[in-house]
Amino acid sequence: MNSKSSGISGLVSALLLNRLNIKIRIYEQTENIQSIGFGLNLLPYCVKTLYELGLENELNEISIKTGKVLFYSRYGQLIFEDLRGLDGDYRCPMCSIHRGYLHQLLFRHVRQKLGHSSIKLSQKLINFTNKSDYIQMGFLNTTTGEIKSDVTKLLIGADGINSTVRKILYPNDGPPICQGLHTWRGLTSVDKLYLDGRTMICMENPDTAYFVMYPLNNNLINPACVSRVKQEDTSFLAPDKSEWTNIGHWKDSLPLIKDMKLDFIDIEQIIKSSTVINQFPITDRNIISQWTFNGVTLIGDAAHPMHIRCSSIISFFHSLWY
C-alpha cells in the first residue's frame, strides 16, 4: 500500500496499517521534513490513538495537557468555562502541541517501525492509473527531474487541500474556495505561562475578529486571530498561494484585537513578541460524491477540508477508518 504524503494523517495511517502487518510506502514531494507550523489541539480520542501507538511518554513530554477553555468578552469579562480532557472526565487528556513537534515524532516512529526506506522524499505524484488488480503511479523527482513509475495495490491520498490525487479523481474540482476569512497565527516564547499553564483563552469582538491563545509547552504560546476581510455574502477563489506558511505581519492583526483586554496578560505584547506571524485564507472545497474509487482513497484535507480547529481531528478519524 502507498500513502501519498508524509503529513500527519499519512503518518498516523502508516503506523496504524503497520500494526496490521500491511507493507507501506510513503511518497513525499519535499526534500526534507521540517518542524514547521503552529499549534494543534488534539482531543482525547486523537490522543487515545497516539497512546495506543506507543507514543504516550514522548507525546506528554512535548505537549501541554490542556485542562480548560475560558471564554471572555472583548472587555475581559469571563463568560464561560469549559473543562477539557482529564479535567472534563475523559479517560485521555486533550493535548496542545506544536504541529512540527508532533510531525517529527510521527516521522521518527514511522522510520523506526517501517524502516528508513519506507519514506521516499522528493517524489511528486504526477499521475496514476487504476488497473483491475493494481494501481500504476508516476512520480517526478523534485530534486533531479527524473520521472519513475511504481505500482501498488492501494493508494491513499493524504496530500492536503491541494491534493494531486483529488485533482486526478476530480479534474473539474477547481482551486480551493475562500469566503473571506483570514487567520493570523504566531508563536511567542515566554518565561512563564499565564494562569495555571494549561488554559486556552477564547475572545471575540463581534464586529471584527475572533482571538484564541493557548500554551504549546512550558515556554511557548500560540496566539491566533481570525477576521473576515471580505463582505459576508461574497464568495471568491482563494489566492494562488493559500498555504498556511505564508508570511504575515503583526501590524496587520493588531487593529483587529485592539479593544480586547485581559487583566492577567497583555494580548498586544504577546502578538508583537511573536517570532513568526503567518497570514493565510481559511479555505474550503466543494463536497464531492465519494472519496474512494476501487483501490484509491482520499483522507484528511484531501477528502474534505475543514476549519483549522477541526482538520486535525478529522485527519485522525480518517486514519482510523482506513
TrEMBL record:
SUPFAM superfamilies: FAD-linked reductases, C-terminal domain, FAD/NAD(P)-binding domain. GO terms for molecular function: FAD binding; monooxygenase activity. Residues 6-306 form the FAD-binding domain. Pfam families: FAD_binding_3 (PF01494). Keywords: Monooxygenase, Oxidoreductase. It comes from the Eukaryota. This is FAD-binding domain-containing protein.
